[in-house]
Amino acid sequence: MIRKPFRKRRVRSRKAIARCPVGARQKSFSGFDQGIFCPIPISGKRPQGRVEKLEERKFDEKAETALRLLFENFWILREENPEQYQLIRERERILKRFIDEKFGYSLIVHRHFIKLEKTPVEPEAWMGILDFQSVRDYAMFCCALAFTESKQVDEQFLLSEICEDIKDMYPGEFPIDWTNYNDRKSLIRVIKFMERLSLLKRVEGDIEKFASHEKEEVLYEVTVYARYFMRTFPDDLSEYASAEEILRAEWERQSDVRRKRVYRKLFLSPAVCREGEDDADFLYMRNFRNRLRDDIESHTSLRLELFKNAAFLVADEKHPEFTLFPDQRAISDIVLHLGSLLREKITEFPPDEYGRIRMTKVQFSDLMKELKNKYGYGWSKQYREGTAASLESDVIELLKEWELLEAEEFTGSYLFKPAIGRLSGHYPKDFSGEAKEEVDGGETE
After folding, report:
1. pLDDT per residue over 217-252, tens digit each?
2. Which domain of life is it from (predicted)?
3. What order of strands is seen across the sheet that includes strand 310-315?
4. 3-state SS class at 160
């Protein structure tokens, strides 16, 4: 998620943690439970005969790159990315063996695409479709998928046709009304997402015009990928009462469940936190940490960092496929500063036995005011001159996205997770804030 070159104000040790699902993220973490500050980088054809090529049996750099592509993309389309497609095909055999043994995932290799079926241990908010804004968007999307199932590959249809079918199939309490602006905007988000994933191909027209007039027409074409978006299940979905039942059914078909749960957590989450004394997954990581570390480092560019209350995969180098923290946004610098301030206030806000810090909304607001007074001179204009409420909202949103904080539903308090202890950011000693007007946000160490 690095979108801009580094700015003039540099971080001494701006490093990071990886999340693989949507992607690998980097963070500089230094656990509260360690009592020290330690900035660490976070986040083919077979030949004749029966003997395979050595490159097909060895998990080399190409296999590592292929694995990264599989985790960071929903799928790899041959038509759009022929080189990536060919790279994965060349390492297909060794990739399938590693993925099945460690994760229990299915690697689907089709003549038009390659797809890794990634299922988390526990669904998280960030794993959803970020472009969607409501349950209605998801419901419309499912109706649109059902519509494409009734069409042949390359069959064309008008926007009014899919609108009519979605209106008939929509399961919500309130029916769809295409004269309603919000309903039309919801469909626009759905259609644009389907275009981006190549489920639909726009032939003629502009979907954005549908926002201003419900009679606007656009011509679309169903692609070969449309019928492969949904996963296949061993049983009819109507036999499951909840999403939890679907996930449980997945584990019933797996062997070596504990190992696969641990690998999925490490690769699909920014950090894995200890949930209790009898947390079996965390105990597994402790008992087999050396084996896990060696295995991960020999198959990926990531490293396992394991502390008393948290574990994460860290990356020493940036990769274009990864979504990284900290990125170039000014809000990332502010979160790094927040990590430093929390460390300074360790006696005022002592962590519990699981490395978590609890504080009320009032305490958090006071902390943010102190943070701005101490570091705000180097922030971007948006946050230097913006309201306290806007600053708090953006910080909380980013912390939640990276699973560094959760809001307690009943008390309204905030619970900082132990991974926040690995974040720390300071300005260089010679930094005066003179260039702060020229950049989006000052970089920190």
Report:
1. 999 999 999 999 988 877 888 888 888 888 888 888
2. Bacteria
3. 272-273, 310-315, 302-306
4. helix
